[in-house]
Design goal:
Strand content: 15-25%
GO molecular function: oxidoreductase activity
Pfam families: adh_short (PF00106), SCP2 (PF02036)
Subcellular location: Mitochondrion; Peroxisome
Family: Belongs to the short-chain dehydrogenases/reductases (SDR) family.
Number of strands: 10
Distance between the termini: 61 Å
Number of helices: 12
Strand order of the largest sheet: 3-2-1-4-5
Radius of gyration: 29 Å
Helix content: 25-40%
Largest sheet: 5 strands, parallel
Main location: mitochondrion
């Protein structure tokens, strides 16, 4: 049976133990050549394995090994290991950037020595090793670079020791292509004077707020905790509010009963589209159709209410 990695040469950083070694052993079973680029040449008192014991395990499984003492922060060591790999195996087909450093302490408790280590290994080391391997990878028939990194988990438990504020979604990641198409007609619309008395009792805005009143309940108020003010311009200009902070919640025309946490300014037509699910708040904000002043975290929570209203509008 032909193995996928048979005859391929893998340059793996941090391959003396852990995930790097596991990848090396899997490749060895396929009959691959493995360059073990790691620091541990002598047994560590607490951590098992060296580049030489890893080499023995690789060859025992049918692969070929080249142990190299490499600190990925050291350009000379990486360069020498790359040249050794090319001389011994004829080239490099796959680079696995596995070496990493981590220190799970709070910002104020983390010494700069640890910060420099993490940046030096995780960022600079990955860049440097890639830079030196790429000329040889380009000669391979099927070159690959595999960067090992955990996915960005936005669970607050991972960020609570390192930020002063709640995390916010990145507006620049939402429907980039559609945003580019819409940027041509972006307009920031100022608040215009209008007949707010008639708008308060009839029209699409009044209808939207009647639905909002029906959606409000103590659970939404408890989970939101914000007062919103809407300065609307255009055909149905006026001032409206949604109180999702006090009592069972309230909504209507005019100024909010207490100071607003978030003030949103936009055209009344876009307001109707937004609450009907035809215009995403993110797109409205990024294209200049929506101006937001105040607590951005609460502004984003408004989307939850909008999603509840789609079927009713």
């Amino acid at each position: 049976k032909l193995q996928k990695l048979a005859g391929q040469t893998l340059f793996i950083t941090g391959a003396s133990r852990g995930i790097g070694k596991a990848i090396a052993l899997k490749a060895a079973k396929d009959g691959a050549n493995v360059v073990i680029a790691a620091k541990t040449a002598q047994a560590h008192p607490k951590l098992p394995g060296t580049i030489y014991t890893a080499a023995e395990e690789i060859e025992a499984l049918g692969g070929k090994a080249l142990p190299c003492i490499v600190d990925v922060r050291d350009e000379k060591q990486i360069g020498e290991a790359v040249e050794q790999a090319v001389r011994k195996f004829g080239g490099i087909d796959i680079l696995v950037n596995n070496a990493s450093a981590i220190n799970l302490t709070g910002t104020l408790e983390t010494p700069m020595k640890k910060v420099d280590l993490m940046l030096g290994v995780n960022l600079r080391g990955t860049y440097l090793t890639s830079k030196l391997c790429i000329p040889h990878l380009l000669k391979s028939k099927n070159p690959h670079i595999l960067n090992l990194s955990p996915p960005l988990n936005l669970n607050p438990i991972w960020f609570k020791n390192h930020t002063g504020n709640a995390l916010l979604p990145d507006f620049f990641l939402d429907e980039a292509e559609a945003l580019v198409q819409n940027m041509g007609d972006q307009v920031v619309i100022p608040v215009a004077k209008g007949d707010s008395r008639s708008a308060a009792t009839s029209g699409p805005i009044a209808e939207t707020f009647n639905i909002i009143k029906g959606v409000l309940n103590p659970d939404i108020v408890k989970s939101t905790g914000g007062v919103y003010k809407f300065n609307l311009s255009g055909e149905h200009a006026g001032v409206w509010f949604i109180d999702m902070k006090n009592g069972g919640g309230s909504a209507g025309s005019g100024e909010p009963p207490v100071k607003a946490d978030v003030v949103m300014t936009m055209d009344s037509a876009d307001f109707t589209k937004m609450f009907a699910g035809k215009l995403k708040p993110t797109m409205a904000f990024m294209s200049g159709k929506l101006m937001i002043k105040g607590d951005m975290t609460l502004a984003i929570k408004m989307e939850k209410m909008m999603s509840m209203m789609k079927s009713k509008l």
